[in-house]
User: What shape does this take?
Amino acid sequence: MGSETANDREKDWQSVESFRKMCRLLELKRRLFLENDRRNSEKLLPQSQFTHLMMIRFALPCNLGKIMEVTGMTSAGASILVNKLVKQGFLERIDEPSDRRNVRITATDKANRLLKHIDGRLNRYIEHYFLGCTPAELQVIGEATRILCAKIEEENPDR
Assistant: This one.
């Protein structure tokens, strides 16, 4: 720290501020994108169920406790959500043979088709931001993204 100057530290924070701005912009774009998909998917799922399915998708397969953790719901709320998604054919409960009290919750083919459709649209949407990038810029973006993802995953080791 002794050899670091105030100017060096300011440059570091400017880099972090660019990242913060990018996160805010991406969050806004993501919300707009998902809102559009939600409207298109309303025939399949009510808004809150669609939102919660999008939240838990990366935790699946899991148990009810993980769904509670990811969504911030109570045990009763998470159980009601799972019941509704099971009834509509998006989730399935599988009894754990080693512990009958523990039930594994998985996505069904119906849910996977919906999520694959949304992912495909999202991937195409994201890719248009990179169309004007040079190969060198794409390489820098890729390396920075790998570093950021590794740091984020360190915070959530069970992901």
About this structure: The chain has a mean pLDDT of 84. The first helix runs from residue 6 to 41. The domain at 6-155 is CATH 1.10.10.10 (Arc Repressor Mutant, subunit A). The chain has one domain: 6-155.
